[in-house]
Design a protein that fits this description.
It is a single chain. The chain is built from 3 helices and 8 strands. It is an alpha+beta fold. It has 2 domains: 158 residues, Acetylcholine Binding Protein, Chain: A, CATH 2.70.170.10; 62 residues. The strands form 2 sheets. It has a 4-stranded antiparallel sheet, with no helix packed on it. A 4-stranded antiparallel sheet has the order 3-6-8-7, with no helix packed on it. A hairpin with a 3-residue loop joins strand 4 and strand 5. The longest helix is centred in the C-terminal third of the chain and has 23 residues.
Amino acid sequence: MTVRLELSWANRDLAWNPRDYGGIENIHVQPSLIWIPYITLLNSAKKIDKNILHPTRAVVRNTGDVKLTTPLTIESHCVMDIRHFPFDQHLCTLIFGSWTHDGTHVNVTSVLTKIYIEALEIKSNDFQLIDMNGRRSTYRHTCCREIYYVGLFDYQFQRRSALYQVGILLPSALICLLSAGIFWVPPMTGHRLKMGLILLLANLILLMTLGLSLPISATATPSIGKFDKT
């Protein structure tokens, strides 16, 4: 997932009077020259290198307010319930916070509580974003007693099922109908055995296709898979 992480904080040590500096009200500086709260994705599925977390310049205003906008490509953990595949819906959460700064140093707040998905540029052939909300929460590490503030972004998405209806559901229905039609074939001709073997092979291919379409992290067997096994 590609996101744009916007961080804003106040550092009064960076404030100045614009009249003393030719009316300059904001400047762009390298993040390495100022203090930056190390905010990262806590439930990331891969290691995020701190050196590439802030590749852009920070905007510092004369009031001491600092804003840093960073593009990120992230991968997060999400348990998917695929019992209703391919009509499944999922609710996942992105947890942004700091591993090093507790609540006495960094108070994480979410500016947006309701995110309008119509304004997002989402390009996915497999899933469609339904809803997304932001909220603030607290937690404690098992090792420490300090309170940490985190920003949570809950997003709900559903699978685009048109392709799976044609490629999986329709063949499953045809195999089911043809399996029932085997009993209308005269047993003495030998065609019943051939037809049964062909349907068995088709069912195995369909199960293999279904297995390749499902995520590895799935925690349940889809109903269509149980139906094909029977």
